[in-house]
Write a structure and sequence with these properties.
The chain is an alpha/beta fold. Helix content is 26%, strand content 23%. Strand 1 and strand 2 form a beta hairpin.
Length: 341
């Protein structure tokens, strides 16, 4: 009888897994993944951190991973290798900590991108503004976020002083899984070390030349959060969840949305204001250029719609459409290969 394990780390073609309290290592069964990929009508689902997988245990070596079970949430990003399906970054999480540093890392366009991708992942977004000890004046940033995402929780935190960390307790309950999303050097690894009570991850300092953090995480990994967490200020909060740390992402390019629990476009959530404007245009197929009665054009002209916000929306729309077309091409190739077998 086969067992069900959880992927806790990905090391190239080898996977670390948990089976109850036992730690195992496994590799993919080629016939179930690579050979099947050539004949399947849909792209084969490859494992990532957080996935529940069916395995065949091997007491003398690496176990065999047979399949990936259904996901309740997943992060997909465009595969850099031409002709290959989108990559799953993490799966089966409840919350997404969108992590941005207050010292020069914060940009509204980047936040809009993260909110869009999170919106289609199936997880609940939470905005973490790290290194709060370096930026005591943050009212302008908070005002910008409130105007963009008034219903999303925002926490200003510092892994150095402990500021704001107690506010994360509500997400750290047993049974919850959290994935950290953000660029290199924003403090994700420091946060993991604080919340897990162990030096799991190496941390880098701040480069004096540009105030950017040094990249530290090199692979995806899941960590257990203890039931009691001692913060840098000496206070104690409750835990019990799991945290998935991911390597810093220079630019998160949108993948196809169909792998998410709801299959919804995150654009509809992150750009609800623009979606509402487009619905007010006189023509249903309005291109928002020179058509009469265009609500978007009118909003841009009177200043109620920010041009930067609009351009980000257009860019993400193109990425989403490209991801959909790319998946269709891959599916057609797989179907053709299957007919030729």
């Amino acid at each position: 009888m086969n067992d069900t394990a959880i992927i806790t780390a990905v090391h190239r073609d080898r996977y670390e897994m948990s089976l109850g309290t036992e730690i195992l290592y496994g590799r993919l069964k080629k016939a179930a993944f690579y050979y099947m990929e050539k004949s399947a009508s849909e792209p084969v689902r490859f494992p990532t951190v957080g996935d529940r997988v069916e395995i065949m245990q091997n007491t003398d070596g690496d176990s065999m991973i047979l399949s990936v079970l259904e996901r309740k949430s997943v992060f997909m990003r465009l595969n850099a290798t031409q002709g290959l399906p989108d990559q799953a970054v993490a799966a089966n999480f409840d919350y997404v900590f969108i992590t941005m540093s207050l010292n020069k890392d914060f940009h509204m366009s980047k936040l809009e991108r993260y909110l869009t991708v999170t919106g289609q992942s199936g997880g609940t977004p939470v905005i973490l503004l790290t290194k709060a000890d370096l930026m005591p004046e943050r009212e302008d940033i908070l005002a910008q976020i409130a105007s963009l995402a008034p219903d999303i929780a925002v926490h200003c935190v510092s892994s150095y002083t402990g500021e704001g960390l107690s506010g994360l307790e509500r997400y750290l309950a047993p049974g919850n899984t959290i994935v950290l999303l953000g660029s290199s050097g924003v403090g994700k690894s420091s946060l993991v070390n604080i919340l897990t009570g162990a030096e799991w991850m190496k941390t880098g300092g701040i480069r004096e030349t540009d105030a950017q953090g040094r990249h530290t995480t090199t692979f995806r990994q899941m960590f257990p959060v203890p039931e009691k967490i001692m913060l840098p200020d000496g206070s104690i909060i409750n835990g019990g969840a799991h945290i998935i740390d991911t390597p810093g992402i220079r630019k998160l390019v949108m993948g196809d949305v169909s792998e998410s629990a709801e299959g919804e476009s995150g654009i509809e959530t992150a750009f609800a204001d623009i979606e509402e404007l487009t619905a007010q245009c006189r023509f249903a197929d309005c291109g928002h250029r020179s058509e009469p009665g265009c609500a978007v054009k009118a909003a841009l002209e009177n200043g109620t719609l920010d041009m930067r916000h609009w351009k980000t929306y257009l860019a993400l729309q193109k990425e989403e459409e490209y991801a959909k077309k790319r998946k269709q091409v891959l599916m057609k190739k797989a179907q053709k290969a299957r007919r030729q077998r």
